[in-house]
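Structure in, sequence out. Go:
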């Protein structure tokens, strides 16, 4: 069996850790080429001890120097690099076959694009890449012959429910609609008044999935579902109205494809990100992910309901941004990142997250997203507008 060499961008995060868990189960198939983190130098050291990567990357030179010292003491030969250019280098390195793109936020954009341009197999967890630069990104995937496998459980599920060749518009393949499932988050059924009192710790306690804090808040506001709707449009050549959000509190069905003959194909499994990660790593084969078999008798029932867009306006804002096109999704994403950060810092109420995003959206013009510079500029200006609004509060 040929060994596949893997770079894990964002190795110390929730997705990164799950990826290393799967990789560690298959030493005969995978070698870790590079592991990257932002500031979590101790966690990265522990991962280097376990997985012996050729390269490790941290953001600050000071942290990198510390890691170099620790690795030398442990007698490990891992090279340690620092800064954002190093992320690009380990993503496009010729010896790398597969890149897990699991850095959170806009910082993931350039290294993910570098992996695509180098024609790698790219396991895409980072949402911001498709949300902010979907058109450019999908164009680059096609031009450079990269293999793109979505890791978000919903998109991974849809990928599994569609025909192998599904580009060129859903209608061409007899697909009527994509059904994007949502757990509804920890506040499903809450009124807007009750939501106004929500604290960061409440928002981060997701009922079914264990995730990073930013994405946990996004799940609670349903912005996460909105961002996923935008991602699904790009990944599967769909229009926003071809995607229906279905609240499904058990999180057992991870999404579905509805066909014109009346068939609905669903992907089911325990809520564990190691399933889509293992699928992405091994596709088109299947490997053990360490995930328990789904016990349907224990699940017993599956419930479905529409999303409450009045209480959770972020979903509507995202759909409108996708329909508006151009830089609108990048503006939405930037404003949301600032708002979530302010909420987690106790500077903004839970329901004010959507309000701030709507204000920034109204204040920023939509222009065609013709290149990365235009998108990054829209992102910076949206963040500035969001910060200015926060200061005025
Ligand atoms: N968790 C899930 O279940 C899930 C599901 C679907 C999609 N996703 C998406 O996958 C991505 C990762 O999610 P997560 O939950 O794993 O996030 P997370 O737990 O917050 O981990 C983020 C990772 O990115 C690194 N990082 C953060 N900021 C960085 C920067 N400026 N430069 C370089 N590296 C940076 C972190 O390093 P430090 O540890 O040093 O901070 C960490 O390794 C997100 O885009 C998320 O939306 C997550």
């Amino acid at each position: 069996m040929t060994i596949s060499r893997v770079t894990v961008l964002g190795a110390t995060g929730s997705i990164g850790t799950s990826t290393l868990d799967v990789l560690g189960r298959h030493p005969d198939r995978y070698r870790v080429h590079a592991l990257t983190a932002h500031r979590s130098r101790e966690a990265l050291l522990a991962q280097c001890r376990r997985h012996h990567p050729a390269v490790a990357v941290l953001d600050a030179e000071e942290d990198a120097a510390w890691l170099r010292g620790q690795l030398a003491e442990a007698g490990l030969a891992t090279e340690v690099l620092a800064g954002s250019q190093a992320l690009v280098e380990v993503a496009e390195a010729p010896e790398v076959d597969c890149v897990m793109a699991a850095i959170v936020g806009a910082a993931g954009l350039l290294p993910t694009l570098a992996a695509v341009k180098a024609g790698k197999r790219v396991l895409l967890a980072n949402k911001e890449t498709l949300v902010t630069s979907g058109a450019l990104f999908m164009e680059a995937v096609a031009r450079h012959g990269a293999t793109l496998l979505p890791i978000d459980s919903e998109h991974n599920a849809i990928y599994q429910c569609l025909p192998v060749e599904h580009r060129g518009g859903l209608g061409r393949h007899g697909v009527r609609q994509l059904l994007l499932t949502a757990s509804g988050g920890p506040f499903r059924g809450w009124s807007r008044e009750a939501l106004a009192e929500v604290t960061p710790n409440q928002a981060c306690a997701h009922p079914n999935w264990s995730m990073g804090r930013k994405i946990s808040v996004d799940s609670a506001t349903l912005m996460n579902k909105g961002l996923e709707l935008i991602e699904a449009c790009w990944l599967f050549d769909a229009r926003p109205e071809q995607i229906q959000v279905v609240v499904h509190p058990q999180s057992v069905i991870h999404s579905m494809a509805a066909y014109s003959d009346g068939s609905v194909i669903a992907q089911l499994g325990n809520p564990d990100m190691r399933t889509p990660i293992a699928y992405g790593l091994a596709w088109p084969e299947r490997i053990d992910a360490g995930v328990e078999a789904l016990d349907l008798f224990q699940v017993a029932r599956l419930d479905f309901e529409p999303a409450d867009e009045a209480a959770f306006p972020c979903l509507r804002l995202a759909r409108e941004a996708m329909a508006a096109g151009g830089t609108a999704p990048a503006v939405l994403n930037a404003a949301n990142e600032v708002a979530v950060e302010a909420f987690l810092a106790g500077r903004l109420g839970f329901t004010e997250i959507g309000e701030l995003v709507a204000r920034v959206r109204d204040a920023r013009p939509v222009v065609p997203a013709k290149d990365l510079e235009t998108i990054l500029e829209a992102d910076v200006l949206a963040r500035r507008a969001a910060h200015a609004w926060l200061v005025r509060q």
